[in-house]
Write a structure and sequence with these properties.
With 331 residues, this protein is of the alpha/beta class. It has 12 helices and 12 strands. This is LacI family transcriptional regulator.
Length: 331
């Protein structure tokens, strides 16, 4: 190809590896010939030459044993993340922990990062604070965590204003005239679950309302836990007139339990969720929810990682994206 284009082999290499140092005319010439002959650069050789893999490792520790592990909120974030990285020529690689015998648990993901020579890591975790995941935050590889307060020299996190969203939910229910209000939390002490509960509780207190211990039932973000939690809340006497579920899948489960108990939503009991997943607008009577910017979270994670990828930049400050109340028929 160098002979056909009339340039050196080194120039051809620069066109594919460091195109910014080659003139536009030369780039177009070499790329045109490459297209004619069907040439594709060898990614393995490129990695060896540039010491960059153009791969971003994804640690997705969301407890795959759950029947509903493909949580729609996480899927939406992943699509946005992949799209933003692809626009910069980066690919996502799902990382599994290295299971080599004798390897310390804390080193399992670090070893996987080293084996695959990834340029950076994105963490979507279940909030368990696994030592093998935590070790990534202390490593030198650029790292971005989603909804987890992981920080380090080259690690930052992206989240939503979870406390503010919890406040929005409480304020909306109070404005609707509700005074006996309960909540179904996410798995405590997961960071977003704690923040949403704190914001919700604060807004109730500001209105002179208390949240008793038995007004709080923990879920796990998934539908079945919301259904079970709502059944528990409905045994209270007097039962709550409104329930804030800290995740939409749990809110859908709560709606199902309310219907199974013969209750009308919102006439007998109001329900509000958090996330604004696609199904929230589709199920009757339409789920009122606190919307997160799912595309924004994925895009912000990619941008934070890209800012660190030269290998010398410090981690940017954590980012908390705003939330928005979406009012539908369930309240």
């Amino acid at each position: 190809m160098a002979r056909r284009s009339g340039v050196s082999v080194a120039t051809v290499s620069r066109v594919f590896n460091t195109p910014e140092v080659v003139s536009q005319q030369t780039r177009q010439l070499v790329l045109g010939i490459a297209a004619e002959v069907g040439y594709l650069p060898n990614e393995s050789a490129r990695t060896l030459a540039t010491k960059k893999s153009n791969m971003v490792g994804l640690v997705w520790d969301t407890d795959h044993r759950r029947p509903g592990w493909r949580h729609p909120f996480l899927q939406d974030i992943l699509v946005a993340l992949k799209s933003a990285l692809s626009a910069h020529g980066l690919h996502l690689l799902m990382l599994a922990p290295d299971q080599s015998p004798g390897l310390d648990r804390e080193q399992r993901f670090l070893r996987a990062v080293q084996r695959h020579n990834v340029d950076g890591v994105v963490i979507i975790d279940n909030g368990s604070r696994d030592p093998a995941v935590l070790a990534l935050a202390d490593a030198t590889v650029p790292c971005v965590a989603l909804d987890l307060r992981y920080t380090g020299p080259t690690c930052t996190y992206i989240t939503s204003d979870n406390a503010g969203g919890g406040r929005l939910a409480a304020q909306h229910l109070i404005a609707r005239g509700h005074r006996r209000i309960a909540t179904i939390t996410g798995p405590l002490p997961a960071y977003p679950a704690v923040e949403r509960l704190d914001g919700f509780r604060t807004a109730l207190a500001e209105a002179g309302l208390a949240l008793a211990d038995d007004d709080i039932v923990s879920g796990d973000w998934y539908l079945d836990s919301g259904r079970a939690a709502m059944r528990q809340l409905l045994t209270r006497d007097p039962r709550p007139t409104a329930v804030f579920a800290a995740g939409d899948e749990m809110a859908v489960g709560a709606l199902r339990a309310a219907h199974e108990a013969g209750l009308r939503v919102p006439d007998d009991i109001a329900i509000i969720g958090f996330d604004d997943i696609e199904v929230a607008a589709l199920i009757p009577p339409g789920l009122t929810t606190v919307a997160q910017d799912k595309t924004g979270i994925g895009t912000a994670a990619a941008e934070a990682l890209l800012a660190m990828l030269p290998g010398t930049a410090a981690a940017p400050e954590p980012t908390a994206l705003p939330t928005e109340l979406i009012v539908r028929g369930s309240t």
